[in-house]
Design brief:
The protein is an alpha+beta fold. It is built from 3 helices and 9 strands; from the N terminus they run ββαββββαβαββ. It has one domain: RutC-like (60s Ribosomal Protein L30, Chain: A).
Length: 134
């Protein structure tokens, strides 16, 4: 990831360099003050989708990517207060929820999980996160 500069001095952002960020004009994560917002994150790797057909593997990849973005902006998973999970197939909810529980079981952020049509046929899960740094 690389940090980019913006007009506001209290605003920092990071990018993972995915083509989607460039096409749609967004950052992987943005920090303003003590708040960090992480964009919807999928298992899109440089060579295509990671963990094709495996919602748990995709969730692990996504949460690792989210954690790296948080750390780069001075936060951690322990600072996460909200996650939003979008799954392509509702039957994948439990596999995705179990991985979320592995990472957030003691942190317990507010959470929403919904079924959604995701961009990319192989993408099974997309996750957003919000963090508040003490």
């Amino acid at each position: 990831m690389s940090e980019s500069t913006t007009r506001r001095q209290d605003r920092r952002s990071v990018s993972t360099g995915t083509r989607w960020e460039a096409i749609a004009g967004y950052a992987r994560a943005v920090r303003v003050g003590n708040r960090v917002l992480v964009s919807g994150t999928t298992a899109s790797g440089p060579d295509g989708t990671v963990g094709v057909g495996d919602p748990a593997a995709q969730t692990r990849f996504v949460l690792d990517r989210i954690e790296r973005a948080l750390v780069e902006l001075g936060a951690s998973l322990h600072d996460v207060v909200r996650t939003r999970i979008f799954v392509r197939r509702i039957e994948d909810w439990e596999a995705v929820a179990r991985v979320h529980g592995e990472r957030f079981g003691e942190i317990r952020p507010a959470n929403t999980l919904v079924q959604a049509q995701l961009v990319g046929d192989d993408l099974l899960v997309e996750i957003e996160a919000e963090a508040e740094i003490p």
